[in-house]
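Kindly review both lines to help learners:
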Amino acid sequence: MSGFDKVVTSYEEAMAGLEDDMTIIAGGFGLCGIPEGLIAQIKKMGTRGLTVVSNNAGVDGFGLGILLEDRQIKKMISSYVGENALFETQLLSGELEVELTPQGTLAEKMRAGGAGIPAFFTRTGYGTPIGEGKEVREYNGHQHILEESITGEFAIVRAWKADRYGNLIYRHTAQNFNPMAATAGKITVAEVEEIVEPGELDPAQIHTPGIYVNRVIQGTFEKRIEQRTVRQA
């Protein structure tokens, strides 16, 4: 990797520099659009004491759920925990610190962090446990609470296509949290399905400009479906 070329060829290089007690911002929603290989590399590295910011923690045995198996995650900042029994067990036992955050607020925390905005006011959560202890101001006749933005030492995202300069295109619902997460890391690593040469991507179609991305690696994906429901004959 040199100059503007951000492509790396190994997962070891992709996650180089990750250390214990760091914060990771992770894209994905359920199992859709998650950087499977990067998560597996974190598992392999055995990095511990992590704070992970993500909508959820995958499922038992897949996605971010595999990092719970060896207690690598110290704290989750997330919106939803319902698909992961191990997550629930560790939460109730006090092994895992969890900061539940409304989905829209979580997305805005990432976006604001990437934009250099330290905090913002929102109506969401006012009058609920989410708003306890937070500054309150009235705007246009409604009460708002102050939410701080969030950044991490690493952001890991999944994209459909990238060029060697790190420009990213996400496909369909894999956009979810990925575009916001990509802006919020000091080091952003994108795992992608296809890498093309600079100039091959339509500039009007790019979701994340390469200025936000530090490393790109081409991966292979299982694309597991979280829950499959079919109609009985």
Observations:
- The chain is about 20% helix and 25% strand.
- The longest strand covers residues 152-163.
